[in-house]
Amino acid sequence: MEVKVVNLLDFDAEALTDWFVQQGEKPFRAKQVLRWVHRFGATDFEEMTDVAKSLRAKLATTACIAPPVPVRDSVSSDGTRKWLLDVGNANAVETVFIPETNRGTLCISSQAGCALDCAFCSTGKQGFNRNLSAAEIIGQLWLANRMLGANGDGERVISNVVMMGMGEPLANFDNVVSALKLMLDDNAYGLSRRRVTVSTSGIVPAMDRLRDACPTALAVSLHASNDALRDRLVPINQKYPLRELMAACQRYLVKAPRDFITFEYVMLDGVNDSDAHARELVSLVRDVPCKFNLIPFNPFPSSGFDRSPAPRIKRFAEILIDAGIVTTTRKTRGDDVDAACGQLAGQVQDKTRRTAARIIPIQGA
Ligand code: SAH
Ligand code: SF4
Asked: For the whole prediction, is pTM greater than 0.70?
């Protein structure tokens, strides 16, 4: 009988416990193995010294620990580091580490490509290839920890995780939630819910599911102050318009670990950046406790958009601030390695799959 080899990175605590129990093992084995895999970055079962020898031998034939394979590792002059990960079939995704004075943020991808086709996004322009597995998602954190020299003694460089890489996390709901659970698990990465942020373009039913399954900090990509404009910039708005999105944000806050939603807003010259847009936003978000993060547009070839000039962004921010909304403007990091928001596109993508991608249903929708 052929024994199926499972990748242990695919399992969160509950799934690993079930798997051990199915094999006739004690449930606490899951906790032990989880610690070895995620806290200590083990890849070899022989390292797992508190696991019985017989079980180690059995695991060696039934399981593996297989993180994604980095095919490129680039470091920007500002310290931002980017890994290009091979996910098979000529697809690649990117993971970006952004060091700051008192924190280190890892930006993780959830899909190879994205089906949602936002007008200003380079990932969207490449079309959808496939969902990443739970192992490929958590594997990015596993790998980055290892590459950044974490040694398992609790001294970790990554203090925050943002699901803001390639793809729409809530369109790959189950795998993303498994990975989130591991990020929060004390036997794995032990991050607090406030330090893990999911960014969504606004898939309303999946926002409700996330609130119930694993509420983390939530960022919502708003980018427009009215439906006509958002329909054009963020096409999922045609399905879940602003009124529904604002209501979903309010519902999310009932269980969210932070008492505000972060609205992301890309600043596109002459498109969504006027004083009138800012004032319209103030009234749109009236009933949603929120902060704004303005993102200067990061250009890519033939995008058809330009970045708003700095004084325009400043004035836009002032209008929000004057209305009592905490507003920050994102610093562009990692430009010289194309690691800035919206520039993540992989390098070996297969553009011919674009048409097929459009009809792939979105999980959770
Ligand atoms: N799919 C999710 C998360 C990934 S994108 C989402 O859309 O929220 C992370 C952020 O970068 C989003 O707010 C996205 O709209 C923004 N973004 C995309 N392309 C960009 C670009 N070219 N310049 C600046 N920000 C961009
Ligand atoms: Fe997808 Fe987000 Fe890019 Fe829109 S902005 S195409 S949802 S990755």
From this structure: yes
